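Hi W., the 1,3-dihydroxyacetonephosphate complex you wanted:
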Amino acid sequence: MGQLSNKRRPIIIANWKLNGTTAFVSDLLDGITEQWFGVHQAEVVVCPAFIHLAQAVNEHLAHSNVALGAQDCSQFEEGAYTGDVSAEMLHDIGCQYVIVGHSERRRFYSESDAQVAKKFDLVHQSMMTPILCVGETQEQREAGKTLDVIKRQVGAALDYCGVEKLARSVVAYEPLWAVGTGVTATPDQAQEVHAFIRELLGPVGQAVRIVYGGSVKANNAETLFAEPDIDGALVGGAALKADDFIEICKAAEL
Ligand SMILES: O=C(CO)COP(=O)(O)O
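Structure:
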């Protein structure tokens, strides 16, 4: 993949969303860690639900080469915010990554660009790496507004946090029309937006890993990863089966 020419380490991130019991998570993590040990070119991250993070790190990941991430964090540092989980709590429990601004958070919980930017900043303050999700709706794409939407979403984090923090982050391009729909962006469509995001970031853009998400499967991962600006994937449905997920991870190493 692009890795060879640009020296960015590929990264494959599993977003398990609202799925799993302790038994399911145990089986899935066993399946992943049994197949992903030793030295690999690609970095692998799993993002279980909050309630399974401690189990994941204590029972499975502590001595593995699979990193732990969370699916979200609070926009507040601490205090009277019932139900929230702070970035610092996630760091304390062993997370290295936190997804912020996922389209499902923006859509179902009306998260704004400003809230996402606050979360993005707090993840950095807590010494973890944010995975900033951006992406357009079908309607916005049809209206020719894709790049405007991406510019606004990336710009909100850039304005609030500065380019130095963006340089130490992962950006995930997830077009909403491809998330959970079985419709994947073509490699050309994804590449166009990835190249645009890299350009928006200026000189530091060359070092930032930009991953694609939206119906990534074992049978389409390889062609996506062959694009020069696609550095890996953020995987939903196909990350719920260890064998399928590992196939995608392997495709990032070709
Ligand atoms: O939202 C996603 C990952 O964050 C993508 O989900 P699917 O892979 O199920 O389309």
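The chain has twelve helices and eight strands.

W.
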